Amino acid sequence: MADAPRSEITRLLLELSAQERSDPLGSERLIELVYGELRATADALMRRERVNHTLQPTALVHEAYLRLVHQDAIQWTGRAHFLGIAARCMRQILVDHARRKNAAKRGGHDAVVTLDEELASEMDEEIELLELDDALEKLAKLDERSARVAEMRLFAGMTVEETALALSVSPRTVDGDWATARLWLRRELRGE
Asked: Which residues contact 14 (CB under 8 A, 6 or more apart)?
């Protein structure tokens, strides 16, 4: 299916109240509209993971989608908001997967993730996913919005404009927050 117009996704999300999300027809239409974008996000995330990762992009999309449509407390504001929440959800799924795998190995090595090219050029190309997650949690305690910007950029591959829309801020604000997050993450992950 060709990508749906962004406005159609936003319209459907706004129409779906918490009660309507459990409606199979509304949920089916939503997945038809957003599956391509969620799959592209999952593919990009999985390309950054180690080659022998046991979680496949399709499974990541399906698990994230199931979590998203059962979020009764969230009132969607549109496509960018949905994708921003999807980024957080996919991040959590990958982190949970890495923690379970490490627990099963009893002290095995953390999952390795390759950062986006922009951030990777400033740091070592590969870092441990759990280390990145911990760093983002620390950043969130200091600067929640910068951490959300980093999450959306790193885990969902969202553009500056999409991130700005999801966070209801200007693209210039996102640029500043992204610069702050990159600098802070570089220092934190290098132990500077």
From this structure: 76, 77, 78
The predicted structure's pLDDT at residue 103 = 63
**Rg of the chain, C-alpha, whole Å:** 17
Global pTM value? 0.62
Tell me how far apart the alpha carbons of residues 177 and 154 are, in angstroms, rounded to a whole number. 13
For the segment 126-184, what is each residue's pLDDT rounded down to a tens digit? 567 788 889 999 999 999 999 999 988 888 778 899 899 889 999 999 999 999 999 99
* CA–CA dist 23, 38 (Å, integer): 20
Asked if 10 contacts 78 with a C-beta cutoff of 8 angstroms, the reply is yes
- Kindly list the domain boundaries of the chain, sorted by start residue: 6-190
> How far from 96 is each of 101, 122, 128, 130, 158, CA to CA, in Å?
9, 27, 13, 9, 22
* Whole-number Å distance between alpha carbons of 175 and 45: 22
Please state, in angstroms and rounded to a whole number, the distance separating the CA atoms of residues 168 and 1.
Answer: 29
Q: What does the DSSP 8-state code read for residue 133?
A: H
Three-class secondary structure of residue 113 per DSSP: strand
Beta bridge partners of 128: 112
Can you tell me the distance from the alpha carbon of 141 to that of 60, in angstroms, rounded to the nearest whole number? 27
